[in-house]
Amino acid sequence: MNNKIIFLFIVSFCLRLQPLAAQQFKLLRYNEDYSYLNKDSSRNWHSKIKYFPLFHKDHYYISFGGEARYEYAATSHEDWQKNGEGNNHVLLQRYNLHADLHLGPSVRVFAQLSSALESLSKLDPPPVNKDELNVQNLFVDVRLKTWEKEKRSVTVRAGRQELDYGTGRLISVREGTNVRKYFTGGKIMYNAPSFGADVFAMMDDEINPGVFDNQPTHEINLWGAYSYVIIPGQGNLDMYYLGYHKDGATFEEGTANETRHTVAVRYWKYGGGFIYNLESAYQFGSFGDGHISAWTTAIDIGYSFENTLYKPSINLRNDYISGDKKPGDGRLGTFNPMYPKGGYFGFNPRIGPANLIDLHPYGTLTFSERFSAQADVVLNWRYATGDGIYRPSGSFNVPGAGSDEKYIGTAYLLSAEYVFSKFIKLSCGAQYFDTGAFIDQQLTSSVNSFFINTQLSFKF
């Protein structure tokens, strides 16, 4: 069965799905609030496990939740080489179970266990696929101050915790991968109706495939502040600073210790009608004995026709992400995405957000509240010919110095999502990557790549 037949099969399967409701669970499960169930006298089984009162006191309760996710994925020529190791298929499983304990209005303990398993693959599992059992979240919240009339509060959080900010360009929980990203550290959070700010310092936990064998780095790898402002009738403004450190970072420039600072701003609006997401960031710091000067700017604009049949939306993204123009000159111009969302350029991108120019038109159809489909085309160029291309994680992949070719290739994607109920969701997708002149020049006997996946998730 060739790639075109497989692609058409996935398309027909996705489009035959019948509409059904949407899940209400949040990306970060600790952001869910079930305290309102205290006033529900006719609660069902789900409500009872989401709000179990303790000690017959107000604000004393425990909430339970979890997830089971199963994914089958098959890849052809992932490394774009005819005789490479890019032909594989894999069955992934992920299980999460959490408890959210509230001890009055000011103290909270959140704990979550996670298990990520891989089978069928002919290759050793990468860290993003396998972690047999770990503590995904274990933190304590202490609310220091509350202004009830103004609905403002200051909260301190300490312990192991997931982070996800903005669109996930720089700090993401990496929901698409089998193993989600987390850190260990502390955070102070200020929240108000139209303004909020987080200040944090985190250690990057090292992921190992066994049972309770993950370890923090014992040094601060990520620190910074992230703030947002809601502008009534206009949109949302995010401003942030991030500090980052890594020993032995590798770019085309070389390998050295890296300390990097990022200052950025984002202006965005989602919902009906005109939608937009504009973001720019500048990075400076040190790389070995040299210095860093890198940047990125992204534009994502579109229009959502919410009063039209199937509520279509059309969108266009354009990213400029700097690369290193001259390797070995003591100045690093490659942008570092740090902890990016793996699916920022599609659900299974081949190219990471460094030394990249992309043009990304896409559109969605919402056939019902529970069934939607999306089609994407992503055209990719190198920003600088003195630098290579990077993986979705940001790690170095294919060297580029010595090549004048800029065009990397074009990705064609189709995905669909179908929600059987609040608790069960099915998603599937297919991607075809047509290599460009740069890949064809740098890799011997280069070939196009193909990817399909089907994912079924259960949440409560």
Describe this structure in words.
It is a single chain. With 460 residues, the chain is mostly beta strands. Helix content is 6%, strand content 52%. The chain is built from 3 helices and 22 strands. The chain has helices spanning 3-16, 45-50, 437-442, and strands spanning 52-53, 60-76, 88-103, 107-119, 131-147, 152-161, 183-191, 195-204, 222-231, 235-251, 254-269, 273-287, 290-304, 313-321, 331-332, 356-366, 371-381, 389-390, 396-398, 407-419, 424-435, 449-459. The strands form 2 sheets. The protein has an 18-stranded antiparallel barrel. Strand 9 (222-231) and strand 10 form a beta hairpin. The chain is globular. The two termini are 38 Å apart. Mean pLDDT is 91; it is low at 6-23.
Q: What is the mean predicted local confidence, pLDDT? A: 91
Helix content: under 10%
Strand content: over 45%
Give the count of helical stretches. Answer: 3
Q: Could you give the distance between the termini?
A: 38 Å
Tell me the radius of gyration.
23 Å
The biggest sheet, with number of strands, parallel, antiparallel or mixed sense and barrel status, is: 18 strands, antiparallel, barrel
Shape: globular
Topology pattern, helix = H, strand = E: HHEEEEEEEEEEEEEEEEEEEEEHE
Characteristic terms for this protein:
single chain, 460 residues, mainly beta, 18-stranded antiparallel barrel, two-stranded antiparallel ribbon, 22 strands, 6% helix
